Amino acid sequence: MTAPRLDVDGLLADPAIRIVVCCGAGGVGKTTTAAALGLRAAEVHGRRTVVLTIDPARRLAQSMGLTELDNTPRQVKGIDAGESGGELHAMMLDMKRTFDEVVEQHTTPKRAAEIFANPFYQAMSSTFAGTQEYMAMEKLGQLRAGDEWDLIVVDTPPSRSALDFLDAPARLSRFLDGRMLRLLLAPARAGGKSMFNLVTASFGIFSRTVQKILGAQLLTDLSGFVAALDSMFGGFRQRADQTYRILQDPQTAFLLVAAPEKDAVREAAYFAERLVAERMPLGGLVLNRMHQSDPAGLPADESEAAAARLDAAGDQKVTADVLRIHAGLLRRNEREVRVAATFIEAFPEVPTVEVAAQPADVHDVDGLRTIGALLSRG
Predict the structure, then answer these.
(1) What angle do CA 92, 176, 253 make, to 5 degrees?
(2) Cβ pair 171, 244 in contact under 8 A
(3) How many CB atoms lie within 10 A of CB 219?
């Protein structure tokens, strides 16, 4: 079974496509693919493009010749946009800085200072599970709302974490609507009883249990944090829901990136199932690092037999080694095709593009340009 070809240039050139989200397992070349797509969109199709990476790896900065990436888009120099007018910018999500920006934008300076000083906020904005994914949604929403960019390319964490990226709005709503949070918030809305009265009177058995588990100081910090953010809760949920709807909109295209390995293809299939279930636009599959060799001249079994005959004759050792290498490449290609077929059989309508394995890692703009050209040729 053959999958339809993914027209990468058609996707990047389409002005209706404003967001491309690259998803996949770790180590499959996802960051390189995202950067190559952004570069080609800028150079070939003249689009003002920003690449947002959520993965903390530094490879994106290195490949683009930048000394560092942070929460502010930085322009990539040395791209060849010609007369197209395209630009390429790159940034890496700083979840704490993004959280701080949200607080600063949606509350008074005095209340912001109170929130920043709260120990629970300091922990949550830096290390709390799920904060990174929610702040990624916030940053994507900010970039899209500003209408500054023709195209936003998002490089997500490895796919199971990328699913957290999709789940962030729902998890946030569950957190904001949770029983414990409502109980913590009730005294602040009722006029601000002291934490002592809150624990001893308002909560009853539930509060004493929570205090025993969490400790009084942590409960105090949490209550103060909840009270300080009370006015912002509706805005958090609303913006997250808006960004989620953007991800479901035809202006977005999800590209799955996988290497021809069982685990990577399984992850891609897992993510594809989720996208279909969530009615999100699945643009296609990029099969990275495919090994290619032409079997027409000499099939693998004949190549191995010829090498064995040369070995037996004790002659032409180099030729025998070349024949074995040729046979090994053919066998590897056959395995990779079989592995890729498991995805294609499950999702026969998803367009696919193969990118040949490169002799060295991509570490500069020229390398990204080469990958972009391979993506476009398929």
Answers:
(1) 40
(2) no
(3) 21
Are the C-beta atoms of residues 324 and 304 closer than 8 Å to each other? yes
Tokens of 138: 């916030």
Residue 88 Cα distances to 138, 315, 358, angstroms: 21, 56, 24
In the chain, how many H helices and how many E strands? 17, 8
Could you give the angle at which helices 119-127 and 131-145 cross, rounded to 10 degrees? 80
Token code pair at residue 24: 């996949």
Task: Tell me, yes or no, if the pTM score tops 0.85.
Answer: no
Encoded tokens for 152: 């936003």
Sheet of 252-258: strand order equals 74-75, 87-92, 48-53, 151-158, 19-24, 252-258, 282-290, 352-356
Residues of the chain with pLDDT under 70: 1, 55-59, 128-130, 159-162, 169-170, 172-234, 293-297, 378
Q: Which tokens belong to 228?
A: 């300080």
Q: Name the amino acid, one letter, at 359.
A: P
348, 352, 357, 362 alpha-carbon torsion, rounded to 10°:
-140
CA–CA distance, 66 with 77 (Å, rounded to integer): 9
pLDDT at 196: 42
